[in-house]
Give the backbone structure.
Amino acid sequence: MTQTDAPEPPRLLPPQLRRAWGMPQQPGKRGRRPSLELETIVAQAAGLADTGGMASVSLVRLADALNVTTNALYRYVDSREELDVLLREYALADPPLTATTDDWRAATREWAGALRERYLRHPWLADLTLTVPITPNALGWLEALLAALESSPLPAPDILRAATLLDGYVRFQFITQRDLGAWTEHPLSDRDVVEQVAPLIDARGYRRVAALFGAGQYQEPTIATHDADFEYGLERILRGIAG
Amino acid sequence: MTQTDAPEPPRLLPPQLRRAWGMPQQPGKRGRRPSLELETIVAQAAGLADTGGMASVSLVRLADALNVTTNALYRYVDSREELDVLLREYALADPPLTATTDDWRAATREWAGALRERYLRHPWLADLTLTVPITPNALGWLEALLAALESSPLPAPDILRAATLLDGYVRFQFITQRDLGAWTEHPLSDRDVVEQVAPLIDARGYRRVAALFGAGQYQEPTIATHDADFEYGLERILRGIAG
DNA sequence: ACCTGAACACCGTTCAAGT
DNA sequence: ACCTGAACACCGTTCAAGT
């Protein structure tokens, strides 16, 4: 007896995606009612991350903050990995509305600025493993960017590449600034260290790097320079795209 | 009694940097001779990472592979964090020689290609936390890029920003391709899933994303398209920089 | 069906020995 | 000075209960 005439049960999305897409897990089953909502769990996790960074988010601490046992969380989430996916979705909630302007540069700049704000608000967003957008909010951001680029001179096959370039730029630019900032606050950035390293740099013959060190370009970035640096790279990319 | 007339002992670099710069730790002290070399430890760690990814590198497994106790490693390395710094240096060993050409675009392309090869050879390089270059090999790469950009039309204050842009581009471009590739091999990329997600995308009104899905642009990137995608973004950046 | 208690196989790190 | 043994405070995850 073959299986062919038994109608294929509609294959479900993997649970990870199902949850991210907000689909009910086991609709209408009965028994003890859950004491938590998935949303409050994710919100709590985001709160922990906002306060102490991604390093302070663990299932143990999360459960603790929710007054539950660690294991109880596995009723709501399949794994730590899925929690991360949901955290990403949380930070990307309410993607910007599709722009209606004809000025694709302005629309793209607006998009990039909005995404950058998400990173600034939830710096841990940069710590989540980059994944191909397949979840609703991530796709919402992609949709908005595609809309912005629609009036650009780009040929169709280049639009996704340009979108990837822009999305990646916002991300890595934020990371660079964040880590550079962390370094500046770090004891290692003491003038002392720079003075210690300088002769080593000279010894290696890195004269261009030495010049940068000498010019103090490695020190004390301010918010103003942060914004200017962000704009700089974005502008170059826009010009490059415009061809 | 003040401390002022006691000559300040020459402040040493933090041990982390000292080791990365190859300076002897406690020169000439005597006692039991070390059974390991720092270099073999780092090489072994890199080997583990090459084989099983960054996730398979732990002090426990590393010590095991070296036939030592975990704690013994602390004679050579201050912390796991320092091991990561040294791993980065390992992957960036022998930075490219400073280019002598006048063609800054060609030189920059060459630089970017060389860095990309490092990522391809040691994919875990992308998993290490990005830090401000203060170690010899990282600075060597920066020096080479600054040299390449020297004949460009960039004003001096923009050179470091352009360098950051290029360095970041190679990194995030690699990450994007790697993760997209991992996703394509992943069961989630089944045609089934795409078919499952498609109606959800429609329901959200993401018509541009839906078009991409329909066109199959989300599927099966090849090495050829990888190279082409890399070139695409690099070319845009170069054009943007050239102004 | 939910939640707990107990347990497992891992982490990185520290301390008090031994040689 | 090096290395070991033992211990600590953490991880994520699984299983067998209890209600």
The first helix of chain B runs from residue 15 to 20. Residues 15-24+33-91 of chain B form a domain with the Arc Repressor Mutant, subunit A fold (CATH 1.10.10.60). Residues 32, 58-60, 70-71, 74, 79-80 of chain B lie near DNA strand C (CB under 10 Å from a C1').
